[in-house]
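Explain this fold:

***
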Amino acid sequence: MGTISSLGIGSGLDLNGLLDQLKDAEREKLKPVERQIANQDAKISAFGKLEGALSKLQDAAETLGESELYSSLSASVSGDSAGAAAGKEAMPGSYRINVETLASRGTLASKSVDSVETPLTGNAEETLSLSFGKSANDTTMKIAAGSSLEDIRDAINANEDAGVDASVINDGTGYRLALSSREAGADASITNFTLSGLTADSNPVEDGGTLQAGTDAKLNVNGISITSPNNQVEDAIQGVTLNLKETGETTVTIEQDTLAVREAVNGFVKAYNSLKETTASLTSFNAETGQAGELNGDSTVRMVESRLRGLVGGAGQSGGDFSLLSDIGIALDKDGTLSVESDKLDDVIANNQQALADFFSGTDGAEGFATRLGGSVGQMLGDNGAVQGAISGAESRVDSLGNRYERMEQSVDRTISRYRSQFSQLDGMIAEMNQTSSYLTQQFNALDAQMKAGG
């Protein structure tokens, strides 16, 4: 029996169409597994959203649990002559700042030369000496033989210890080497330099030269005179950094940073409500459409909600002035979300911040609310926690379903291959039968013709 290379050629039947229908029917067996994989993938994605919302809540709780939050100070400034930043060592108080002089950098230029490329040093290496406001700051550096003005500039800028930055300026009649002290203040001010072939124009600016001495900043704080080599003045006020901007008066007030505490509380409320919104979406059910959230009925979400509800609605550390969130102005609403009673919270922050710190971060004898909440969320999110366990379980089911799908797909391929082989055999058999039928018809027709001719 001959081999049929294309189904249906020998029989005239649409065997390819029939085989495609059988293949589609066989692959229908894969769809339930595909749906199960898609369902588990959707659950993994949903658990990822839950994990993200819990992580934000944990971060907010950790911020509230930091005891430094309740002892931090802020600096407020009235006036334009200075800015201020308070550090850990700062003390509350009000300070009147009068900036008399800003710190500046010294500048000096050489006398003019005709070309930037003409060699200014001899055939041997030379020493460039740089003098500053204090002789102890004086430095020397080597300048290569045959160096031009540009070469000298580049050598200075490449030297980390030069104490000055160099540039070349065209004054309209020639070229000058211009030096600017890298640091502000009188002691760091460039005053002179010496080098064969290049002369410093070291007369003061007011006498027609180019020397402009650097100056120290001068200010007084509450009437006390202070000198600083730069405009960032540290510890003139303990724990406070002043940034001088211009001459004039400024008042700096160091006080408890109530804004940071208020922002931390509001951040916690926002994170908690965002988590509630996430869980509500993931567990939702639309009765009209029958559409359910990816984690509708999931036990992990129920456990998370139950545990958090117990923590948020329960009492805090014993022995403190506050025991419930409502005591400090955070209300638990009927829908399970939190809201802030601003007036009550502001009063607590302004007048009883230590008790607020004890409530959130705890005391020596008891954990605070934020500490307990952060620890509980951390357990849920840990490697052995409920959320990670749910994600790992869904991932394992996806792997198992994937293996099952692969085996079923191989089985479908084998079945279709068997059908193809059987159809090929059928096609060949029908082709042979058609050939035999045609042959016999021809023989019978020939015999009939002979019989009629002989009659």
